[in-house]
Amino acid sequence: DSLHSKPHVALLSSPGIGHLTPVLELSKRLVANHGFHVTVFSVTTTTTTTAPPPPKPKTATTTTLDLVDIFELHVDISGLVNPNAPFVARVGVTMRESLPILRQAISGMDPRPTILVVDIFGTEAMKIADEFDMSKYVFITTSAWVFAFCVFVPTLDDEVEGEYVDLQEPVKIPGCNPVRVEDLVDPMLDRRSQQYFEFLRTCKGYLSFDGVLVNTWEDLERPTLKAFRENGILKQILKAPIYPIGPLIKRVGSSGSRSELLDWLDLQPCQSVLYVSFGSAGTVSAKQITELAWGLELSQQRFIWVLRPPMEKNGPHDLNGCDDVANYLPDGFLSRTHKLGLVVPMWAPQEEILGHRSVGGFLSHGGWNSSLESILSGLPMIMWPLYAEQKMNAAMVVEELEVGVRVVQLSEMVEREEIAKFVRMVMEGREGEAMRTRVKELQCSGERALIENGSSYESMCELARDFEMKLKH
Ligand code: UDP
């Protein structure tokens, strides 16, 4: 029957909406375009972030998404790791703790999945794939350039003496753009740290998969993708094929009911509103929030700002309830700017906002999903990287793609004049106009990649053929 004639693919998503979203988008495509049977294992934990919980996993009814079975693997790591430990360390423990439940779930399935696709933090689950004789793939939910860097990290670990932060020159990756020392990912800042150890282990893990899926597309990262394919050092290190299958982003209309923010946006002029958000978990200091508020006010541009409590406030917060956004803003800010902008506590339907014609720019922490969503909405960016690989994303968006500017973080603080200058530059300056033209070209190329005969569409078909071949063997 059809259940047994098509591959059953299991996907493992690590905690965080930034991982779950692309995994779900991939799943939907595997079902809709290739008729596969797909199960998503979504790992969650109690101490993930200050972000609201991801959409409740379900096994349900009518739409394409509902043909994807979603299982939540909930692990409690409260006694195992310090809640203030860096994200990479927490996520490492979380994913390890989820393995026994994953094993048990897979062993009870009929038909049992023949393919396991994990995301960037799921490399240790390859043991389970081996136990059940499944093929194993990793889905990179960031750029091919960041992935090239990761693939090269074990070599760097062998070759570089001393701390990476003491290097005098940018780090060269064969065939790809170099990485500035200041832009290195957080775990590399201290080679003796637990998070460096976890990161190195993860990077080595990437080398053992049967294939690598990347949320990017040919036209966006042609030289980097070429470096993986041509006979060079990268190809020697990573032998597995690489499939650029992006941009897989949340689509407009996926969040259900219409937000009031869109009614407000309807009343604003075309491309006049700056959207400000630091992703699902990013926060800045109380002083920086004040400075950002002044910067927005000084710019006199319209805005929607998703505000989260300052990072000094540890623990969970509910800005929708007793904690009022005004507590974190300069006195009188809300009344002085009430015609100009909106401050939204905690969370906003980002894909709907970016897709609205009144929005003209995005001040972002530069998470890969946000960067892709901005490009696919044709919006120039102000990049304000905070953690993880965001500095590399900022470098790529600003220097290589030239569709954004990057704030200068002098002594950890971005000054109000600087913020106002960048906001005006992107929203009404000539530079902003030029970036807008370029980003719209990228938007078209991203859209083209996904439609029939597009590069990512073809790449997905090739991947699907590989999955089917594995079933026959
Ligand atoms: N997001 C959202 N509303 C918010 C903040 C984030 O819908 O208020 C979504 C955003 O559209 C993106 C994801 O959450 O799809 C965040 O992923 P990203 O890679 O940009 O950053 P991360 O949160 O993983 O650092």
List the helices and strands and how they pair.
Elements: H1 2-5, E1 8-13, H2 17-34, E2 37-45, E3 68-75, H3 87-107, E4 115-119, H4 126-131, E5 135-140, H5 144-159, H6 194-205, E6 211-214, H7 222-229, H8 233-237, E7 242-244, H9 260-266, E8 273-277, H10 286-299, E9 302-307, H11 333-336, E10 341-345, H12 350-354, E11 359-364, H13 368-376, E12 381-383, H14 390-400, E13 404-406, H15 416-428, H16 430-450, H17 455-472
Parallel strand pairs: 1-2, 1-4, 2-3, 4-5, 5-6, 6-7, 8-9, 8-11, 9-10, 11-12, 12-13
TL;DR?
The protein has 473 residues and is an alpha/beta fold.
Could you characterize what this model shows?
Residues 48-54 and 56-64 have low confidence and may be disordered. The chain is 41% helix and 15% strand. It has 473 residues and is of the alpha/beta class. It starts with a helix and ends with a helix. Strands 3-2-1-4-5-6-7 form a 7-stranded parallel beta sheet, with helices on both faces. Strands 10-9-8-11-12-13 form a 6-stranded parallel beta sheet, sandwiched between helices. It has helices spanning 2-5, 17-34, 87-107, 126-131, 144-159, 194-205, 222-229, 233-237, 260-266, 286-299, 333-336, 350-354, 368-376, 390-400, 416-428, 430-450, 455-472; strands spanning 8-13, 37-45, 68-75, 115-119, 135-140, 211-214, 242-244, 273-277, 302-307, 341-345, 359-364, 381-383, 404-406. The chain contains 17 helices and 13 strands. It is globular, with a radius of gyration of 22 Å.
